[in-house]
Amino acid sequence: MSEQIAAAITERLSGLTDPYTAQPFTASRGLKSVDVDDQSITITLQRGYPLASVHGEISLMVKEQLANIDAGQRDLEVVLEEEIISHSAQQGTQAVAGVKNIIAIASGKGGVGKSTVSANLALALAQAGASVAILDADIYGPSQPRMLGVSGKPDTLDNKQLIPIQNHGLKIMSIGFMVEEDTPMIWRGPMVTQALEQMLRGTAWQLDGEPEVDYLLIDLPPGTGDIQLTLSQKVPVTGAVIVTTPQDIALLDARKAFKMFEKVDVPIFGVVENMSTHVCSQCGHEEAIFGAHGADKMAADYGLEVLGEIPLEMAIREQADSGKPTVVAQPDSVTAKKYRDIALRVAGKLSAKKKDFSSKFPNIVVESS
Length: 369
Known about the structure:
Elements (H helix, E strand, L loop, with lengths): L1 H13 L16 E6 L3 E8 L7 H11 L9 E8 L16 E8 L7 H14 L4 E5 L7 H4 L8 E2 L3 E2 L2 E3 L2 E5 L14 H13 L11 E7 L6 H9 L4 E6 L3 H16 L4 E6 L4 E2 L6 E2 L6 H9 L3 E4 L4 H8 L4 H4 L4 H18 L18
Parallel strand pairs: 2-3, 4-10, 4-11, 5-9, 5-10, 11-12, 12-15
Antiparallel strand pairs: 1-2, 6-7, 8-9, 13-14
């Protein structure tokens, strides 16, 4: 009887799709065990993304899926475990010490709110229980120090590595920490790419006694220039997210960003449509100021997924300017939930990628005698 119940549960869960990985709960050995005794049933599921903010939601989904299973009077318990591991990146790149996965947040065009989205996604992953860092790679216009409410110069470790400044549960590194806020960076391309590499590999992302960083988000500058090329050639990027508005002009450049990542074999997790619609704070009227369904069309053309739509709200701008982005300032708001959904869908898609086995194999050196 116990075996029959376990088999029925496994079959039922194989038909239940995880909303964040878009795969059955039983895929990739996600169902660890089904233990049945005379009094209880214990189902243990393992997820490859952080669970703190969705633990109850997933448990409820599983219990509802199994509501009609004939299990007698046994109590049903759902145990959720998480294991965030390193996943494969483009070949020929060297891993970044202390970092499991690197996610690039990109846009083809400036002014679409990419940095605001980057900050909120990083905060959402941290709230979900992950160890998260963010690197502000916009050398000419760093904005993460202001958005995340941090200032000052980072300390150094043995005069060799920079120690990231922390706030809101994030580790943060930016060129903005090295210069005054109103000082322009009048640098040519080689200096910019050197600064990026130095911040990336010269930062102690993991100090003694700390866990590895599960996700390092890189807030890229707009365009497809030197920094993007350096990142795609030398940094083990696990995947990228493209941010755009519904406006045709923004979508033209977003398509270029997609093509750039496609050429260097960096997978795209999906598209975020920012400033999707504006809801009047006085009357509640909703209006598509920058056009409608632009990201949907881009996604359909390239076989991508729209990860979510973020509205155009005054509060988002005010909160970012104050150093407390929406996910921190109004964690229970509808907009904060949208950011959390997007962040977990990215983490879920990442968890479905191939594992990185590079650290499992020894370096073999052949020398002639």
